[in-house]
Write a structure and sequence with these properties.
This protein is an alpha/beta fold. Helix content is 23%, strand content 29%. The strands form three sheets. The chain has a four-stranded parallel sheet. The longest helix is centred in the middle third of the chain and has 13 residues.
Amino acid sequence: IVVGAGNSAVEAAVDLAGQRQPDGTVKFPPDAEANQVTLVIRSDFPKDLTLENKMWVYYCLDAGRIKAHFGAGIREIAEGEVVIESIRDKREIARVPNDYVFALIGSIAPKEFLTKLGVKYAGDDKRKR
């Protein structure tokens, strides 16, 4: 799962799906070796998404190598599964088998929100001196 829609999130999703090519296409590994990549996007791709990234992500979407959920967020991260919900009405959209979540949602992480989800930060368990 890649959460976000900016350039960093799109680049991560494309790189997880395959190998970017200079012509704007992506070379994909055989199906048996391929990652299943899901983008979770709160609204739409931002206006400042580079043309190159637009080409790559749409190439992967059209090829079925990236699945995108627009107007969506993460409701729950469980062992081996992520529950995706609609931002508008909070209904469950999908349950996606999952190993990793990449939250590429801006330069300042929403630490309080992520901590509530169970994310642990390096150094949080050390005593302050």
